[in-house]
Amino acid sequence: MLNKEIVAKINKQINFELYSAYVYLDISNYYADQNLNGFANWFKIQTQEERDHAMLFMDYLLQNGEKIVLSDIKAPSFAFTDFRQPAMEAYEHEIKVTASIHDIYGAAYEIKDFRTMQFLDWFVKEQSEEEKNTDEIIKRYDLFGNDAKGLYLLDSELAARVYTPPTLVI
Ligand code: FEO
């Protein structure tokens, strides 16, 4: 059994991860609509990763005999006007996800819930990757994206991303 506050926070995180999947799906759809299919591919794979994150949190609750409570997933309401904005939105979104995971970690730390802390270690590391990856897209866009040929090459590079399942096994 886990502490009730931790369970509530993890249930909230499940919703946040599913919302993240929605955010990236919306971004992927925007790029696909703009014929930037490499960007669209990258963000569609990001959607799959977010779904995986939600599943891992669910598996953790199940493994500990706790109840999963699913709640409504908010629809994203972006109105992008240039190609850079979605990447920036993604980066800022990841900062919020990191803060949310740190919040659960902090609560677990307070009550000496070492099991949850150990489970969250993977996510703490994963978040530094998530922030780095989205920040890299912005930086590369700033370097190459304003030139048609550069944008084409960047899009081709992002088209090469393939989905890999998470390394964490519950
Ligand atoms: Fe599940 Fe991108 O954080």
Cα(first) to Cα(last) distance is: 16 Å
Supply the CATH class: Mainly Alpha
Number of helices: 5
| Mean pLDDT level | 97
Largest sheet: none
Determine the CATH superfamily.
Ferritin, core subunit, four-helix bundle
Q: Tell me the number of structural domains.
A: 1
InterPro entries: Ferritin, Ferritin-like, Ferritin-like_diiron, Ferritin-like_SF, Ferritin_DPS_dom, Ferritin_prok
Protein name: Ferritin
EC number: 1.16.3.2
Pfam families: Ferritin
Description:
GO terms for molecular function: ferric iron binding; ferrous iron binding; ferroxidase activity; identical protein binding. One of its GO terms (cellular component) is cytosol. Residues 1-145 form the Ferritin-like diiron domain. It is found in: Cytoplasm. This protein is mainly alpha-helical. It has a single domain (4-72, 80-159), classed as Up-down Bundle (Ferritin). The chain has helices at 4-33, 37-63, 84-110, 114-144, 148-159. Helix 1 (4-33) packs antiparallel against helix 3 (84-110), helix 2 packs parallel to helix 5 (148-159) and helix 4 (114-144) runs antiparallel to helix 5. The radius of gyration is 17 Å and the shape is elongated. The structure holds MU-OXO-diiron (FEO).
How is the topology of this model organized?
Elements: H1 4-33, H2 37-63, H3 84-110, H4 114-144, H5 148-159
MU-OXO-diiron is lined by residues 17, 20, 50, 53, 94, 97, 130.
